[in-house]
Design brief:
The complex is a heterodimer of chains A (about 280) and B (about 425).
Chain A: E1 29-40, E2 43-54, E3 58-62, H1 69-75, E4 86-94, E5 97-98, H2 106-112, E6 113-116, H3 127-138, H4 145-157, H5 161-164, H6 177-189, E7 195-199, H7 207-220, E8 225-229, H8 233-239, E9 242-247, E10 250-256, H9 257-262, H10 267-273
Parallel strand pairs in A: 3-8, 3-9, 6-7, 7-8
Antiparallel strand pairs in A: 1-2, 1-4, 4-5, 9-10
Chain B: H1 3-52, E1 57-66, H2 69-72, H3 80-85, H4 89-99, H5 106-113, H6 118-130, E2 138-144, H7 147-154, H8 159-179, E3 183-187, H9 190-193, H10 206-237, H11 242-254, H12 259-273, H13 281-306, H14 309-317, H15 322-351, H16 354-358, H17 379-387, H18 392-423
Antiparallel strand pairs in B: 1-2, 1-3
The chains are: A alpha/beta (about 280), B mainly alpha (about 425).
Chain lengths: ~280, ~425
C-alpha cells in the first residue's frame, strides 16, 4: 500500500476545518483505516477517519466525550457488529486484509485483534477458566499441562501471576478492580492477538491500579500493537508513542505524542490539551 | 436570615403539616389495602381448612367378621377366580345382624346394612384374596363406614337432621356402636391413593394427582425446551425486523388468550385432527404447553436481558462465536431466571381447569392412570367435579382436594422464590 500524506499536510497551521492534521498513515502499518464512516441509524458517529496503526506502538486516542474515539476503536475488531443499526463504510485493513470483507469471519479476526473494556468484565468463573477460555475455544492448547502453561504465561505477562497463583480456582469476580482488569488483559493475551484494543482501561480504577496497568502497557508493547482510548491526557502522554485527537466524529490531529502535547497544530487540539474544554 | 428567607421558611413550615398528613393518609391507604387482601386470603384459607381437614380421617366400624367357608368357598378348592366371585356382602352383613338382633323387617335391615360402605365388601374380598388362610376364622376388622355415618360421626350432620333423615333407629344403632367402641376414625390414606368414585367414602384424589402429574410432565418436557429455545433465538440471534416484531406481539397476545380457547384448539387439532385419545394427560399436557409457552418465553427473555452486555462483549472480544457466547456465558447466568419462569408457568398450568374440560379430562374416571395415554382427570377438574356433587361428604373432600392443590402450588412457587434468591445476580 503506497504511503499517502494527509491532504492537509504537516505544515498547515491550525484552522477550524475538520480535515486531519498530521501524518495519518505510517510506514509499517499493522492496521490501516481509510475513510471510515460510521452511522448509528441516521446519526453519523465517525466522519471520514483515516488512521494507520504501526507495529509495536501504543497509539492513544483522546478527545471529549462523544467524540467517536470508542466507536472508532470498536470498528477495529468489528465489535460494532453487535450494535443494532450500526453501519460502517470505508476500509479497515489488518495486514493488508480488509476486515469488513463479506467473506471474512469475525471469529478469527477477534482472536487476532483482542479487546479490553472500560469496566473490568471477568466471566463469573474461576481465574483459571477466565484465562483458559480463549485458548480452549480456539483449540490453541490441549487440556492439562499445555493449558496450564498458557494460563501461567498470560497471567505473568499481565503481571498478575504472583498475586493469584495460589488461588487460580477462586472466582475472577472476587478480585479487586485493578486485578480484574489485569485478569481481562491476561484473558485477551492468552489467545496471542496481534493487536490489543483498550477502551478506557483505567477509568474505573484507582491511581495505584492505573499505574500498574500503565507499566504493563509499556511492557506489552514489545510483543503487541496497542490502541488505547483514554480520557486522561497525562496517561496518553505517559504510555503512547502517537496520539490521535478526535472531535465530534472527526479525527482532528494525529502525530507523535510529544509533538501533540507540546506543539498542537489545530486550535481544537490545543484547546483540549490546555484544558479549555473537554 | 433576611426577610425573604424568613418568609420562605414560614411558608415551608406552614405547608409541612399538610404534607405529612397526606403522607400518613397514603401510607394508611396502602396498609389498608394490604390488610384487606391478607384478611381475604385468611378467610379463604380458614374456610377451606375448616371444611376440608376432616376429610383426612375416615370413619370405620369394627366388627367381628366370620370368614364363612360356606359363603366364600363351598367347594374348598381355593380357586382364586372362585374366591373373587363369592358374595362377600353376606360376610359383612352377618355381624351387623348379630349385633342388632332386634331388627327384623326387610326395610329396617336394609337400613342397617347401609351403615357400611360398599367398600367394606371389597375390603373383605381383598383380604381373602391376599390371604386365603383367613377362611374359617373370625377376625375383628375395621370396616369402612358409609359416608352418612362418617358425616354424623364427624358432626357435619346434626342429630336432629340425622334422625329426621334416617329414622330414630339409625341414631340408636350408631349410639350403641359408639358405646361399644366399634365406631372410630383413623388416618385416611385411601384419599391419596384411590381414584374417583360415586361413593364419597371411596373417592380419592389419587387418580387426579396421577393425571395432573402426567399432564405436567408432558407440559414441562415440551414447554421448557421449546420456550427456552424460542427465547434464546428471539433474544440473541433473531434479526430485529418486522417479522420478529410480529412474533413478539403475537407471543405477548397469546399470554392473554383465555385458556378455554386453547382447550377448543386442543380439541380441534390434537383430538379431532391427529386422533389422540380423549381425556388423556398427553393431550392435556399439549394444551397446557400452548398455554404456558408465552409465560416461559417472556420470563426467559427477561432473564436473558438481565445478563449484563459486558459478559457478551467479553466473550465476543476474545473471539467466541455467538453460539459459544450464548451457551458458555449467557445461558448459565440466565438459567435460574428461566427456571423460575418455567416453575411459575407450571404452577399456572397445574391450576388450570377450563382447557381440560374441553378435551374430556372432566370425565368420571375411577381408575388411576398408569401412563399419559390413559384416560384421567386432573386435580382442579376433580375439585370442579366434586364441588358439583350433592352429598355432604363431597364438600369436605372438595375442600381437602383444594388444600392438596394449594399445597402443591405454594411449594412450587416457594421453589421458584428459593431459586431466585439462591442465584440472584452473582456477577
Amino acid at each position: 500500500m503506497p504511503e499517502i500524506q494527509s491532504a492537509s499536510g504537516d505544515a498547515q497551521l491550525a484552522d477550524e476545518s475538520f480535515r486531519t492534521i498530521g501524518k495519518t498513515y505510517v510506514d509499517q502499518p499493522r492496521m490501516t483505516a481509510s475513510q471510515v464512516n460510521v452511522y448509528y441509524g441516521d446519526k453519523q458517529a465517525i466522519c471520514d477517519v483515516s488512521l494507520g496503526i504501526a507495529r509495536n506502538e501504543v497509539i492513544a486516542m483522546i478527545g471529549p466525550s462523544g467524540c467517536g474515539k470508542s466507536t472508532f476503536l470498536r470498528c477495529l475488531n468489528r465489535m460494532n457488529d453487535t450494535i443494532a443499526g450500526c453501519r460502517v463504510s470505508g476500509t479497515i485493513r489488518l495486514d493488508q486484509q480488509d476486515i469488513y470483507d463479506k467473506r471474512l469471519d469475525v471469529v478469527p479476526l477477534r482472536a487476532r485483534v483482542g479487546m479490553v473494556f472500560q469496566k473490568p468484565n471477568p466471566f463469573p468463573k474461576s481465574i483459571y477458566d477466565n484465562v483458559a477460555y480463549g485458548p480452549r475455544i480456539h483449540g490453541l492448547a490441549r487440556k492439562g499441562v499445555e493449558l496450564d502453561e498458557v494460563v501461567e504465561t498470560s497471567l505473568r505477562r499481565a503481571g498478575l501471576w504472583t498475586e493469584v497463583k495460589d488461588r487460580l480456582a477462586a472466582p475472577g469476580t472476587g478480585l479487586s478492580g485493578g486485578q480484574q482488569q489485569r485478569l481481562c488483559i491476561a484473558r485477551t493475551i492468552a489467545v496471542s492477538p496481534e493487536v490489543i484494543l483498550m477502551d478506557e482501561p483505567c477509568s474505573a480504577l484507582d491511581p495505584i491500579a492505573t499505574a500498574r496497568i500503565e507499566e504493563l502497557l509499556v511492557e506489552l508493547r514489545k510483543n503487541y500493537t496497542i490502541a488505547v482510548v483514554t480520557h486522561s491526557m497525562q496517561q496518553a502522554a505517559r504510555i503512547s508513542q502517537r496520539t490521535a485527537y478526535f472531535h465530534l466524529g472527526h479525527l482532528i490531529e494525529v502525530g507523535e505524542t510529544t509533538r501533540i502535547f507540546t506543539n498542537p497544530q489545530h486550535k481544537l487540539t490545543e484547546d483540549y490539551i490546555t484544558g479549555r474544554f473537554g | 436570615m433576611n426577610e425573604r428567607q424568613q418568609a420562605v421558611y414560614a411558608t415551608v413550615q406552614a405547608s409541612l403539616r399538610r404534607r405529612y398528613a397526606r403522607e400518613r393518609r397514603f401510607r394508611a391507604l396502602g396498609l389498608g389495602a394490604v390488610i384487606l387482601g391478607l384478611s381475604f386470603v385468611l378467610l379463604l384459607f380458614t374456610d377451606i381448612i375448616s371444611k376440608g381437614y376432616s376429610a383426612f380421617v375416615q370413619t370405620y366400624i369394627t366388627l367381628p367378621v366370620y370368614f364363612d367357608p360356606q359363603v366364600i368357598d363351598p367347594n374348598e378348592q381355593r380357586d382364586p377366580a372362585q374366591l373373587a366371585r363369592a358374595d362377600y356382602r353376606q360376610l359383612v352383613r352377618a355381624p351387623l345382624r348379630a349385633l342388632f338382633p332386634e331388627v327384623k323387617n326387610r326395610r329396617a335391615k336394609r337400613q342397617l346394612y347401609r351403615l357400611l360402605s360398599t367398600g367394606a365388601t371389597y375390603q373383605i374380598r381383598a383380604m381373602v384374596l391376599a390371604d386365603p388362610g383367613l377362611i374359617g376364622q373370625t377376625r375383628q376388622i375395621a370396616l369402612l363406614a358409609d359416608d352418612d355415618v362418617d358425616m354424623i360421626t364427624k358432626g357435619h350432620v346434626d342429630q336432629a337432621t340425622a334422625e329426621e333423615r334416617f329414622g330414630a333407629d339409625y341414631r340408636s344403632w350408631l349410639q350403641q356402636l359408639t358405646r361399644q367402641g366399634r365406631l372410630h376414625t383413623r388416618w385416611n390414606i385411601e384419599f391419596f391413593t384411590a381414584g374417583d368414585s360415586r361413593e364419597p367414602e371411596l373417592a380419592g384424589i389419587g387418580g387426579a394427582m396421577a393425571g395432573s402429574f402426567y399432564t405436567l410432565l408432558v407440559t414441562l418436557l415440551l414447554s421448557c425446551p421449546i420456550g427456552i429455545a424460542a427465547a434464546i433465538y428471539l433474544e440473541e440471534f433473531a434479526p430485529r425486523n418486522r417479522f420478529t416484531d410480529l412474533i413478539e406481539v403475537n407471543i405477548n397476545n397469546l399470554a392473554a388468550v383465555p385458556s378455554i380457547v386453547f382447550g377448543l384448539l386442543g380439541l380441534a387439532i390434537f383430538i379431532n385432527l391427529f386422533g389422540l385419545p380423549r381425556s388423556a394427560p398427553l393431550v392435556g399436557g399439549l394444551v397446557l404447553t400452548l398455554m404456558t409457552l408465552p409465560t416461559v418465553i417472556i420470563a426467559s427473555r427477561a432473564a436473558l436481558q438481565a445478563v449484563p452486555p459486558s459478559i457478551r462483549e467479553a466473550a465476543l472480544g476474545i473471539g467466541a462465536s455467538r453460539t459459544q457466547t450464548v451457551f458458555h456465558h449467557v445461558l448459565p447466568l440466565a438459567l435460574p431466571g428461566m427456571l423460575t419462569g418455567t416453575i411459575i408457568g407450571m404452577a399456572q398450568a397445574l391450576g388450570e381447569t377450563a382447557p381440560l374440560l374441553m378435551i374430556g379430562m372432566v370425565a368420571f374416571i375411577v381408575d388411576v392412570p398408569n401412563s399419559p395415554l390413559d384416560p384421567s382427570s386432573a386435580l382442579p377438574v376433580q375439585v370442579y367435579l366434586w364441588a358439583d356433587s350433592p352429598e355432604r361428604a363431597f364438600v369436605e373432600r372438595t375442600s381437602a382436594a383444594i388444600m392438596v392443590l394449594l399445597a402443591f402450588l405454594i411449594s412450587m412457587n416457594a421453589c421458584a422464590v428459593a431459586l431466585r434468591r439462591r442465584f440472584e445476580r452473582r456477577w
